[in-house]
Amino acid sequence: MSTNNEAPGGYRRVTLTVAAVMFMLMLDSSILNTSLPSIARDLGAQPLALSATITAYLLASAVVLPLASWLADRHGMRRLFLVAVGVFTLASLLCGLAQTPGQLVAARALQGLGGGLLLPIGRAIALRGSRTQDRIAITALLTWPMLFAPVLGPPLGGFITTYWSWHWNFLLNVPIGLAGLWLVRRWVPADGAPAPRPLDIPGALGAIGGLCLLITGLEAAAHTADPAASRLPALLAVLAGLAGLAWTARHLRRTPHPLVSLAPFGWRSFSIASLGGTLASMSIQATPFLLPLLFQLGLGHDAVTAGAMLLPYFLGNLALKSVTTPILKRFGFRRVLLVSGSLSVLAIAAFAAVTPQTGWPVLAALLVVSGCARSMLLTANSTLMMIELPNAQMGAGSTLSAIAMQVAAAMGVAVAALALTLAGQRHAQAGGQVLLQDFHLAFLAVAAVGALALWHYRRVPANVGAGMLAGKAA
């Protein structure tokens, strides 16, 4: 198999190409948040009901993720990456042409199939054959889209929705996707001979079934308008999904040809970053979903204003990105994760105190702090997850990391929507109107999920990655 690092620094061209595709992918996921109220009015649906467009995307991504490693071995990473970019681009065109909620949800699901393959395959392409001293820099470059796209998307989506049409939020991906196809064909090296292996059918069915039941159960619970007793089927689906995933994990440890190897969990750094990062990501990914809705439905701003109000959040992400590596070198993973995780939880909880009387300087400062904590936490967690893995386990580690990221995002959005629904049921509101105090309770619930991650980060060894952190900074 060819590598990306035939010469020092040779990883940059390939990694930047992958990062550019990832930016399109994650911008699309976040640009929808600010546009949901406008899309709902245009298509005759409730804003919270249209969170199904987000969940459908994440669900489809989670379904295809377990197959990514097997498909890459069978067809080659570069070829599969090109197919995924093509599917995502075509689905974006269909989203832009959608005329009903059902059409939009279906097109978003197709987008998720392409996006679900892009995440693990892109990271594996960037990391394959990498030198250990380049791994921190590669991970840092791949983290940029995850940091900036979710906060750049809402203001861009608000501007496009207000001055053009929400359809262009999706049609914008078509020329970007075509450019991405050209870049991948030009700069990403071809694979060696494919190395097909048997398909682990029980593992595939268990993983796909478990993820489907888990996420659809959360989605159903979030949009059940009747008393709690009617949520029993949704709760049973969630429990069945968890049981299915537990069975799948046991199967993957015992079968000779697992669909996805669980060997990366043998590394303590990967295990802690996966579990803690999933909880932290649920909280972090739910926040960009809630904030635009808070600004519009809770505080009464229009889409453009709501998007612009998120700019301090973007500046917070930008402010710390360039100093993340020096801070990690100075204080180590454990301290950075605990401090940034605590700040993130406190900042998210503080949004529960926002009212129409909250001054803009106070709100802007809160957004900046939240953005700074988010930037440091995500970068440190993503780096910790991959820093100790041997090259032979990079593919499996990338797939498992992408699964954790997508499941966390789906669960974060579903939990946030469920919290809003439950809060709204405390009062009788015609037409499903959401009140400001409902958002307050939702932010507290999301912050509580993030607080659970801190317990896992306490278990990070003080000296993990010390050798690499002491090396050359990129």
Question: How would you concisely characterize the structure shown here?
Answer:
The chain is an all-alpha fold.
- So what's the CATH class? Mainly Alpha
N/C terminus separation: 26 Å
In CATH, the architecture is: Up-down Bundle
Output the radius of gyration: 21 Å
Beta percentage is: under 5%
Number of domains: 1
SSE sequence, one letter per element: HHHHHHHHHHHHHHHHHH
| Category from helices, strands and their pairing | mainly alpha
The CATH homology group name:
MFS general substrate transporter like domains
Number of helices: 18
**Mean pLDDT across residues:** 82
Give the overall silhouette: globular
Structure description:
The longest helix has 33 residues. It contains 18 helices and no strands. The N terminus is likely disordered. The radius of gyration is 21 Å and the shape is globular. Helix 9 runs antiparallel to helix 10. It has one domain: MFS general substrate transporter like domains (Growth Hormone, Chain: A, Up-down Bundle). It is mainly alpha-helical and 474 residues long.
